């Protein structure tokens, strides 16, 4: 028997609370992108401060990214499971607290010696990754359970699109801080003064401010009606919670007669029955996320070339502030022209053409772009990094976000029953972040030269870029053969325990 409170959620009109939930839930994704994309310009400052006005080694960049991703893997698994066991709301504030405190702690990385600073920064970024990882399954699940079935995809995509604004914010903050410190510095041309050590710490600490501002609203959010009704089996409380946030008459959501006591099915997570019913869905979500993150985080392959040719990061006449400004400016332009449009094109089309089609479109065009860059790379692009190269580079981000980078966040929040939803989203995301770690390690391999670490090796870059195109085609195949469409379906379709 369909519960009235859940049927009302499926057809509820778009209300102010939906947009409020997008902002509150999206701040975790905002912080995630801010802290990831502020690292490249910050590394320019750290290189000039702790490496005698030289660039930091490639391995330092990749390790700082990888250590945060490792924390994300753990956070997704732990918080995803807790979200199903004790409730989404009860652990939602905890993940945000870890993010905010870790962002601040990154700025207070102890010591002034190079090794000590990098080790402490890596430790706090690991904790930051744990908080960010916990936010992924909780934000996606909460938004999916509050939304109606007609616009659910657009709402979850809008939450994820906050990453684009996080990228833009990190770039703007970096440019402003770098400009202010540079303008007040009296150091000789090309020399980075000691006070630059304060600037990169300030940039990191400011990343926690937007998330901290939403903490109160997270704590005031009620538990989702779907969790309360289907997992806790408290339909009366679910109706009362829904009434608090949505303008729906109580007569439409209160049951007309007492419901029979029917405890939820007892088969456990990852049991034979679970895999028989949900194994294909879990495989498709995890595999797609794994493949797209390999490609998405390997985008640094391009940036090493762009920084070397356009930003001229080895220019002895530029200090750390100026180099950080140039890198941040490039990232801001890329976010405005490519990344953010990709997110919002998905928001517009996700409930019109479906998740599967968008994911296949994204994988296909990403593959074509990587082949267009990779096949002639050694013979042409390696010595002709021009506007054409930048357009192709921007298209990889556009079709990643108008494609699998967004849909892999959406689909796991829709495919699984309420008692497994957050856990399965966490598992899928954790497998994806393992792919991201592989991508960052591949960045080290592909960018190293046989004798130097200054310029990318053209032969390795060619092979790596073509392999990324192949990975995209594998993702296309996984999507076509294994991923089920969820557009227009009620989340309760997956609550049917009939073995058929």
Automatic annotation (TrEMBL):
SUPFAM superfamilies xref list: MFS general substrate transporter
Compartments, record wording: Membrane
Keywords, alphabetical: Membrane, Phosphate transport, Symport, Transmembrane, Transmembrane helix, Transport
Major facilitator superfamily (MFS) profile domain ranges (all copies): 21-487
GO cellular component, one term: membrane
Transmembrane helix among keywords: yes
GO-annotated biological processes: phosphate ion transport
Membrane topology recorded in Swiss-Prot or TrEMBL: Multi-pass membrane protein
Spans traversing the lipid bilayer: 21-43, 55-79, 91-110, 122-142, 154-178, 198-217, 282-303, 323-346, 358-377, 389-411, 423-446, 461-482
Family: Belongs to the major facilitator superfamily. Phosphate:H(+) symporter (TC 2.A.1.9) family.
Cited PANTHER family: SOLUTE CARRIER FAMILY 22 MEMBER (PTHR24064)
Protein name (database record): General substrate transporter
